[in-house]
Amino acid sequence: MTQPSIISIDYLQRDNSHQHNPFLKANVLEVLNQALSEADVTPQDINAIAYTKGPGMAAPLISVAVVARTIAQLWDKPLVAVNHCIGHIEMGRLITGAKNPTVLYVSGGNTQIIAYLEKRYRIFGETIDMAVGNCLDRFARILMLSNDPSPGYNIEQMAKNGSKYLPLPYCVKGMDVSFSGILSYLEDRVDKLLKSGEYTKSDLCFSLQETIFAMLVEITERAMAHCGSQEVLICGGVGCNLRLQQMMKIMCEERGAKLYATDESFCIDNGAMIAQAGYLMYTSGITTSLQDTWVTQRFRTDDVHVTWRE
Q1: What is the CATH number of the domain that holds 39?
Q2: Are 276 and 94 in contact (CB under 8 A)?
Q3: In terms of Cα–Cα distance, which of 210, 171, 204, 170 is closest to 189?
Q4: Is the CB of residue 175 less than 8 Å from the CB of residue 128?
Q5: Separation between Cα atoms, residue 85 and residue 110, nearest integer Å
Q6: Same structural domain for residues 21 and 129?
Q7: Domain check: are 150 and 224 in the same one?
Q8: Residue 66, CA distances (Å) to 49, 51, 148 in order
Q9: Contact present, 175 and 223 (Cβ < 8 Å)
Q10: Which percentage of the chain shows pLDDT scores above 90?
């Protein structure tokens, strides 16, 4: 049986994404033709158009939906509306080979602990205020770190040179986490700490990472215990942080469990993950009618009926 081909339309949430994304500077048709040429396929080879329905920022989501609708009507192809978070999870499962993991989904806009049960990805815990990636990005701005290649990456590199730990608020609330208080605590004290010479920027980056990653490891382990899981999958943009992976691996080894993680090419937002999720949905019989191709900024992970898993 011939495998169906899926074209996916995804978006980048970062305000400065145009600096590193030449696609945003080109005409949509030129980009589409280039993609078809590189993949060596024609519109006749395409079975469906997958696009990101949400969650995310409104303007990029709407732009993506308009492009997807246009292509679908021009080529007379069905549409598949994909949850962005599900895209991360399914790409992670595909690349790593994880079967039924407890998922730590960490990005600039989301922080969730997820496990699959009875046709849903159930959210066991999440942030109650800001996402972990947003916390890192905002702290990078406080320290006036560069956005190139990304604020979180620069914090990770700087933290490697830190050695003095600053005790920070540890905000685990049941299965949920909170990062806004930690950020406010640092914001109020960072100038004084640096001017006194007691701590360096590297020390503060080190302290922030150790604290917030310990919080994430704790709630992940608790979800594993609840589910009886022996697998952990880290996905989302923050998932490529090697210190987070290292801390999670230590916890997994202590439990006799296995950690699954990917590199930056699959952790950060990418069109391939939307195509993979769209492929799974399409082959399980899911398509989206044109009148239902609206977008939502608050498309919950547990709102998706997962028809493609047992």
Answers
A1: 3.30.420.40
A2: yes
A3: 204
A4: no
A5: 8
A6: no
A7: yes
A8: 12, 10, 30
A9: yes
A10: 86
Domain that holds residue 234: 98-266
Tokens linked to 164:
């003095």
- Give tens-digit pLDDT for 15-39: 444 444 444 445 777 888 888 999 9
Nearest to 127 by CA among 182, 166, 167: 182
CB 87 within 8 A of CB 273: yes
Is residue 51 domain-shared with residue 108, that is, in the same domain? no
Report which of residues 14 and 223 the model is more confident about. Answer: 223
pTM for the complete prediction? 0.89
Is the domain of 103 the same as that of 200?
yes
Residue-wise pLDDT tens digits, 66-103: 999 999 999 999 999 999 999 999 999 999 999 999 99
What pLDDT, on a 0 to 100 scale, did the predictor assign at position 11? Answer: 56
Residue 31, C-beta contacts closer than 8 angstroms, at least 6 positions apart: 23
Paired tokens of 34: 């280039």
Same-domain status, 80 and 187: no
Cα 178 to Cα 212: distance, rounded to the nearest angstrom: 9
Same-domain status, 17 and 42: yes
Q: How far apart are the first and last CA of the chain?
A: 21
Please report whether residue 93 resides in a domain.
Answer: no
